[in-house]
């Protein structure tokens, strides 16, 4: 079996350890799984997270999880949703190797895959569920094909990969894929072909026909949504969660320098090598008294990609640590190249001779640097295995939303209607056994709840501690009772009902209820 096959098999094993026994820890995992359930029920254009809550993200990830679920038996389980994400993660590693092998060599590309697959943020995101890993896969394929079109003779297959993968990235995350690509290509062309040749270099991509091909599926989906649901879903998905989030964030607001501190952490442990590489390179230049040989064009392209993505998201007012995932393969390539250059003097000497597998083994095991790399890799793999096999079980006991959801379901009888008030946590929704309705704590929402209770319907209300005072007006119209005081993520959550049973305390305002239950 080829070394890259062995390495991908190791990552497949490490990423899937205990992945079926863990409940959903993050909201994204439950969010996309609930949406995939609705896709299997027929909601293809705009998946539903709940019966009255449409998804606010493009549909591809929901479709992908649903497709993997169909192949796995037709049910959306934790392991199925995570498997869909892991397949995209392994695909991105395979793309990185394929592109790296053609541009910087077989063994440097293999080391780049090792670096990326063991970096902290990539590993963590691979074992969850979300759109970011499919986006990394599609963009890696698209940008890899872009580089080869710049450097090698034009081939229609590469053109199809460039624009086809970009079209899938649009359906996965929205216009950000096209915007980033539109920034990266001219930046690299200016360096590669100069100001006078930049336009001619760009034309190698056939950008006009390519952009039309990439955007066509996205436009077709938009047209279908507009026809079936009107403009509101598109306004939320495209304007609110793309344009508005970028220019005037409504959540996750961070300062401009946020990624300067996040990226070194996300790329651990390999980010520790970056200052070492710079220091060693500068010292060698001083000792040799001459310039080193120029780096392959792929390394310059990788720096263009990484720098453009970093600056673009730094300008965004909304920042999350995993937004930088698309640049991580393009950091791993230079790091893999540098590690291999340290191991094999033939590369730094510019002979261009590719060592065989046996020679590669001798190079790695025959030097202090290589043995150190083996020891570090073994330690990283062992740490990933211990975490996946044992630490996740311990953490699941503390982080799982399933016991809380089971407790809520235990209190809700068949003739009662559960209303969750102002709590948008899909982790709980996924594990609830009962049908429920979402309602906000606005005056209009409270009025609707009060009107429903006034009809005589049996209602259970799941209310956060901070919203408890809002129900005094409803209690004045129709008496409410405290069915249970539960705890979710170390915060009290109140289950109110309009049907008194046994020794339930009457709701007499938040303060009185707290005293009577205290």
Tally the beta strands.
8
| Low-confidence blocks of residues | 289-293, 346-350, 513-518
Give the overall average pLDDT: 89
Main sheet: strand order? 4-3-5-7-6-8
The N- and C-terminal alpha carbons lie at a distance of: 65 Å
% residues in beta strands:
5-15%
Number of domains: 2
Coarse morphology: globular
How would you portray this structure in words?
This protein is α/β, with parallel strands linked by helices and 518 residues long. It is built from 23 helices and eight strands. The protein folds into two domains: 3-392, no CATH class; 402-517, no CATH class. The chain has helices at residues 3-16, 27-40, 60-71, 78-103, 106-118, 120-126, 132-151, 156-173, 176-202, 207-229, 232-247, 258-266, 273-288, 297-315, 328-343, 345-349, 357-365, 368-399, 402-411, 426-431, 443-454, 472-477, 510-517, and strands at 48-50, 53-54, 417-421, 436-439, 459-464, 481-488, 491-497, 505-506. Helix 5 (106-118) packs across helix 15 (328-343). It is globular. The model is unreliable at 289-293, 346-350 and 513-518 (pLDDT under 50).
Outline:
The chain is α/β, with parallel strands linked by helices and 518 residues long. Helix content is 65%, strand content 7%. The protein has 2 domains: 3-392, no CATH class; 402-517, no CATH class.
Keywords, please?
six-stranded mixed beta sheet, disordered C terminus, 2 domains, two-stranded antiparallel ribbon, 23 helices, 8 strands, alpha/beta
Would you spell out the secondary-structure blueprint of this structure?
Elements lengths: L2 H14 L10 H14 L7 E3 L2 E2 L5 H12 L6 H26 L2 H13 L1 H7 L5 H20 L4 H18 L2 H27 L4 H23 L2 H16 L10 H9 L6 H16 L8 H19 L12 H16 L1 H5 L7 H9 L2 H32 L2 H10 L5 E5 L4 H6 L4 E4 L3 H12 L4 E6 L7 H6 L3 E8 L2 E7 L7 E2 L3 H8 L1
Parallel strand pairs: 3-4, 3-5
Antiparallel strand pairs: 1-2, 5-7, 6-7, 6-8
């Amino acid at each position: 079996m080829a070394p890259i096959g062995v390495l991908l098999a190791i990552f497949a094993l490490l990423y899937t350890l205990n992945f079926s026994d863990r409940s959903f820890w993050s909201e994204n995992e439950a969010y996309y799984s609930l949406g995939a359930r609705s896709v299997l029920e027929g909601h293809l254009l705009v998946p539903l997270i709940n019966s009255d809550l449409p998804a606010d993200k493009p549909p591809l990830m929901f479709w992908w999880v649903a497709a993997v679920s169909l192949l796995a038996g037709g049910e959306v389980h934790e392991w199925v949703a995570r498997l869909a994400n892991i397949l995209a993660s392994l695909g991105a590693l395979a793309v990185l190797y394929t592109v790296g092998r053609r541009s910087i060599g077989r063994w440097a590309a293999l080391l780049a895959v090792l670096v990326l697959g063991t970096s902290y943020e990539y590993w963590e995101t691979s074992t969850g569920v979300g759109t970011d890993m499919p986006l990394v896969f599609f963009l890696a394929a698209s940008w890899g094909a872009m580089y080869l079109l710049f450097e090698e003779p034009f081939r229609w297959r590469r053109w199809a990969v460039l624009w086809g993968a970009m079209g899938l990235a649009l359906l996965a995350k929205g216009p950000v894929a096209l915007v980033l690509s539109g920034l990266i290509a001219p930046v690299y062309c200016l360096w590669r072909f100069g100001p006078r040749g930049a336009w001619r270099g760009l034309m190698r991509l056939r950008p006009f026909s390519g952009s039309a091909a990439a955007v066509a599926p996205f436009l077709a989906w938009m047209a279908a949504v507009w026809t079936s649901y009107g403009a509101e879903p598109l306004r939320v998905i495209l304007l609110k969660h793309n344009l508005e989030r970028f220019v005037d964030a409504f959540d996750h607001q961070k300062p401009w320098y946020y990624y300067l501190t996040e990226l070194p952490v996300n790329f651990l442990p390999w980010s520790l090598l970056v200052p070492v590489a710079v220091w060693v390179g500068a010292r060698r230049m001083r000792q040799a008294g001459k310039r080193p040989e120029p780096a392959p064009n792929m390394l310059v392209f990788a720096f263009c990609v990484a720098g453009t993505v970093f600056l673009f998201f730094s300008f965004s007012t909304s920042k999350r640590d995993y937004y930088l995932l698309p640049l991580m393969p393009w950091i791993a390539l230079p790091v893999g190249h540098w590690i291999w250059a340290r191991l094999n003097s033939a590369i730094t000497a510019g002979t261009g001779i590719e060592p065989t597998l046996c020679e590669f083994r001798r190079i790695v095991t025959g030097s202090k640097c290589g043995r150190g790399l083996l020891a570090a890799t073994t330690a990283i793999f062992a740490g990933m295995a211990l975490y996946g096999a044992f630490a996740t079980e311990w953490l699941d006991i503390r982080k799982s939303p399933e016991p809380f959801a089971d407790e809520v379901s235990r209190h809700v009888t068949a003739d009662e209607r559960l209303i969750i008030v102002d709590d948008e946590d899909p982790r709980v929704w996924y594990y609830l056994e009962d049908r429920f309705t979402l309602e906000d704590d606005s005056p209009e929402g409270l009025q609707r709840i009060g009107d429903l209770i006034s009809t005589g319907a049996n209602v259970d209300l799941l209310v956060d501690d901070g919203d408890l005072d809002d129900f005094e007006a409803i209690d004045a119209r129709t008496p409410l009772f405290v069915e249970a005081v539960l705890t979710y993520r170390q915060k009290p959550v109140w289950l109110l009902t309009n049907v008194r049973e046994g020794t339930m305390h009457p709701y007499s305002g938040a303060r009185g209820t707290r005293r009577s239950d205290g």
